[in-house]
Amino acid sequence: MASRSVGSGAAIDGALGERVRAARKALGMSQAQLAGEELTKGFISQLESGQVRPSIRSLQVIASRLGKPLEYFLGDEPLAAAKRVAFHRLAAETAAEQHDWGATREHVDRGLEQAADALERARFLQLRAQTELAAGAHERAFDVIAQALSGLDVAADPQLVASLLYLRGAAYGEVGQVTAATESLEAARDVIERYEVIDPRLRSRVLIALGTAYRRLRRSSKAITSYESALAAASRSSELSLAARGYMGIAAAHYDSGELDAAISSYQRALELFRRVSDIDFELNALQSIAAVQLENGQVEHARLSAQRAMARALEVGSERWAAVAEAILARVALKQGDAEASLKAARHAEKTLARSDDRIQHADAVGAVGAALEALGRSSDADSAYRRSIEMYTAVGDLADRSGMAAEYARVLKARGDMNAAFDMLELARGALAGR
After folding, report:
1. More reliable by pLDDT, 233 or 360
2. What is the dihedral of CA 163, 165, 169, 175, to 10 degrees?
3. How far apart are CA 315 and CA 358, in angstroms?
4. Is the pLDDT higher at 127 or at 283?
5. How many Cα atoms are found within 13 Å in the side-chain-facing hemisphere of 196?
6. 220, 174, 170: which is closest to 403 by C-alpha?
């Protein structure tokens, strides 16, 4: 049976019923044929006589069978189209927070079909760019971002402009064009500062990405400053995802009943909770990034303390993934301190944990840490397998910058063994990714 927002009784929406009846008769279709398998003949009869109001989804089924746009039947509700656009944008934003890219794309597509306002379309295009990046479709992401930016005035909506510049910088970083990534991320940061954008989540995201770009350009002091600023901007939140999913269920129920205002309100609550949860990711990302830079700079003891701090915070908030990322850094620290056995144990545990997550980049890094420990223990054949696997994993996700770093590390290992030809091949692989810098 179709869901209803109001039970049968006195006339509810005669104009809607008349439109459905007229469109059905124009096609020579019976009430039973219009009902099909999803609805019932009785429901169609009540709808046409104005005794029930259908849910949005039921009306979409009816409109499709009658070959009419949904707006044809909602002409007596001037705010309905705007509410549907708002609903699809909030639904897309919430799905993006959960990395549910299929649902994000579906709501973006439906929103773009109905959104006429340039600013609203740019917001949907921002979400589409996120889905393209998640799929590794960098060229499409660049095109979508350029399309969105072309219709925006930075003074009118600096937050959206900064968000799009951030996405462009992230895309450049993923394809190894680190200089271009840095320029775009610096532009995003400048917009945030110049227009005093009050969004700690966006600020943290930009600063973390900028710190990573500086780190890849060997600008260590700038990297540390960016990571520390990101850490200061990230708020500390409790685990709220369960409550957020509850609000999502409520939103879907309201939507099914055609109660768009209530659905939008519930999605807004869910989205806010998901955003508060994701703030923890910014904090943990900053903590482990500081530890990684300290290790690269030879500050082994500082790196150990920072990684331990990151692990403790990750365990405190129940993030197994970030605890494993910190453990991979501690594996590198143990190797620097001459304890290869402890290093291998930590690296393998981190690699096993990260294999269960969807973070393929950190997983690849942990595999590289396993390779380093195996090499220190004289197990060269096993080390070769680990290093090559790590490089293949980076290649598979299109992370050319990190692949370059791992290839350079493996080249040093091969050179120390005296295998100059293989070392040269690895250096060429590293330089190939570095060419975009």
Report:
1. 360
2. 100
3. 18
4. 127
5. 0
6. 174
Q: Encoding tokens for residue 343?
A: 């290093």
| 334 within 8 A of 343, measured Cβ to Cβ | yes
Q: What interhelical angle do 118-134 and 80-97 show, nearest 10?
A: 30
Distance CA 404, CA 125 (A): 31
Does 249 or 226 have the greater pLDDT score? Answer: 226
Angle at alpha carbon of residue 220, lines to 217 and 224, rounded to 5° = 125
**Domains recognised in the chain with CATH numbers:** 14-73 (1.10.260.40), 79-87+94-198 (1.25.40), 214-318 (no CATH), 319-434 (1.25.40.10)
**Among 311, 370, 306, 312, CA closest to 341:** 370
Whose tokens are 């200089």? That residue is 179
Q: Give the pLDDT mean for 353-361.
A: 89
What type of residue sits at position 299?
A: Q
Which DSSP letter does residue 3 get? Answer: -
- Which of these, 118, 193, 119, lies nearest to 162 by C-alpha position? 193
pTM for the predicted model, two decimal places = 0.60
Give DSSP secondary structure letters for 327-393: HHHHHHHHHHTT-HHHHHHHHHHHHHHHHTSS-HHHHHHHHHHHHHHHHHTT-HHHHHHHHHHHHHH
DSSP line for 106-139: HHHHHHHHH--SHHHHHHHHHHHHHHHHHTT-HH
Among residues 271, 244, 266, 264, the alpha carbon closest in space to that of 84 is found at 264
Q: Which pLDDT tens digit goes with each residue over 39-95?
A: 888 889 988 888 877 776 777 788 888 888 766 776 545 446 677 788 888 889 888
Among 347, 350, 301, smallest CA distance to 322 is for 350
Among all chains, which residue has been given the structure tokens 């006589």? 49
| Per-residue pLDDT reduced to its tens digit, 321-346 | 999 999 999 999 999 999 999 999 99
Gap between the Cα atoms of 203 and 200, Å rounded: 5
Residue 127 has pLDDT above 90, yes or no: yes
pLDDT tens-digit map of 255-275: 556 666 776 677 777 777 666
Angle at CA of residue 202, ends 179 and 143, nearest 5°? 55
Of 103, 144, 101, give the one whose Cα is nearest residue 125: 144
Distances in Å between the alpha carbon of 64 and those of 34, 72, 258, 325, 356? 10, 11, 17, 49, 42
54 pairs with which residues across the strands? 4
The DSSP symbol for 55 reads -
Angle formed at CA 339 by CA 312 and CA 411, multiple of 5 degrees:
100
